[in-house]
Amino acid sequence: MALLDKDGVRLTVDDTVATVTLTNPAKRNAQSPALWRALTEAGRSLPGTVRVVVLRGEGQSFSAGLDRQAFTPEGFEGEPSFLDLARGSEELLDSTIAEYQEAFTWWRRNDIISVAAVQGHAIGAGFQLALACDLRVVADDVQFAMRETGLGLVPDLGGTQPLTSTVGYARALEICATGRFVHAEEAERIGLANLVVPAGELDAAVQDLTTALLAPPRDAVVETKALLRGATTRAYDDQRVAERAAQARRLRDLAGLSD
Q: What is the DSSP letter of 63?
């Protein structure tokens, strides 16, 4: 049973695993403000039992990025067009973009592990949505691209930090500035993809990974994820302190001495 099914997003939950599906294959799962609000709602709707969230797109493409209707004078029905937003105050523009970004931020919560199952096109906002997840399993037909600069824009949906931390500054700059495609072999080689499989095996590969992620005790995985996320910003000695504190919590819990 779906907990959410609206505006091109469906959320289903099976005990410890949630699946968020982009459901507009006719438009290659193009994105809109309504879809972003639905993604944000999906994150807020997750039951506490969920440990792994799988993100997938129906059809031949994961997501071809922002629906170009956003750049037309009429925009989306019931929504301010991007041109109208540009004419508004800086405060309104900033708060609106911040609202859009919420759809891309919750995937890295410490209490879940998110896995993007990516096939076909993952362009612009689609690329950034895949980058929002902790892990990416991709089909061998995948095509990543960051096309915002070609439109005179910048990637603004939270994708610049994970891209840079994954592939390094120079490679991230080259990918974003040129807007070129990154295909499966390169994606795996530079760390954008954890695993590349034939398109017909994508679902099975994601299921195998999900099973492996669920095998260890939940609290140990949560603590480990928090440690690894903090490692990118902490000094070495500070990270050692964080490791000791986390291990002390785990040992006390295993000994039945936790509060």
A: B
